[in-house]
Amino acid sequence: MSDWLGLTGRTAAVTGGGSGIGQGCALALARAGVIVWALDRDEAALADTAQQAADEGALVTGIACNVTDVESVRRAATTAGAVDILVNAAGISRPGTLLDVSAEDWQRVLDINLTGYLTTTRAFAPAMVERGSGSLIHVASISSRNPQPGSGAYSASKAGVALMSQQLAYELGPSGVRSNTVSPGLVRTPMTEAYYQAPGVAERRDAAIPLRRVARADDIADVVVFLASERSRYVTGADITVDGGFATTLMGTVPRPGYDG
Predict the structure, then answer these.
(1) Residues 9-41 pLDDT 10s
(2) Cα–Cα nearest to 135, from 243, 32, 43, 19
């Protein structure tokens, strides 16, 4: 039963691989025997990911890449070559209600969170189609189904990712290429760390989740590794929620006298 996932020797490209969920995915894939190319704008962060992998006897190679720049993505794809797995994990958030978010912030979020995913897919997927196999995995969010107020284009961008992945699954399925999304709930990453520095926030967030803790990046990465592997070979067009049960708590937020068990 060694190498149960069957990933040893496979290759992957992971966007946003310098930190947060992207870094977690890059490291988890590398631990599973995958040769990983981590893409990020932050070269120092990429070096940190590569060093962490090396410390564990795994291989991650960083490629400086801006997912909003088509030529930058094309160069990264040329450097990495034909990969078996693409993980789209780059992402940002900008505050603002839909009536007051600036046009620049709205577009910036869409450019990275949605169009960036399409750009990298268009760069890496053709080789998968030609080979007749491949796994595309996109990090969406429970915010794609549950609007996150005050977060500008974030929910809209993640909803777009979810539907884009389903369309890719339909269009590329006949070629043997799968496309799925992973939808995290609350995850403690560098992007969200400022929230947890406010007094009481970490405790309140933990308490809001049935499993009683906010996710770590590796909680999401483990599901990504499954979707990358042959163990999920008949899974495509799916969205897997990874939120510790948080999405199940909606009806518990309203008063129901007599039903408080």
Answers:
(1) 999 999 999 999 999 999 999 999 999 999 999
(2) 32
- The C-alpha torsion from 187 through 188 and 194 to 197, rounded to 10°, is 120
- What's the rounded Cα separation, in Å, for the pair 84 and 133? 7
| 33 is a domain residue | yes
Q: Which amino acid is at 23?
A: Q
Q: Distances in Å between the alpha carbon of 6 and those of 18, 58, 176, 186, 215?
A: 25, 16, 17, 30, 26
Q: Is residue 133 part of a domain?
A: yes
Asked if residue 48 belongs to a domain, the reply is: yes
Which member of 117, 154, 170, 196 is catalytic?
A: 154
Q: Is residue 111 part of a domain?
A: yes
Task: Check whether 1 has a pLDDT greater than 60.
Answer: no
Q: What is the CATH number of the domain that holds 26?
A: 3.40.50.720
Amino acid occupying residue 35: I
Q: Is 154 a catalytic residue?
A: yes
pLDDT, tens only, 237-258: 999 999 999 999 988 888 878 8
Of 220, 234, 233, 209, residue with least CA distance to 182: 220
Count of domains observed in the chain? 1
Domain carrying residue 172: 11-188+216-241
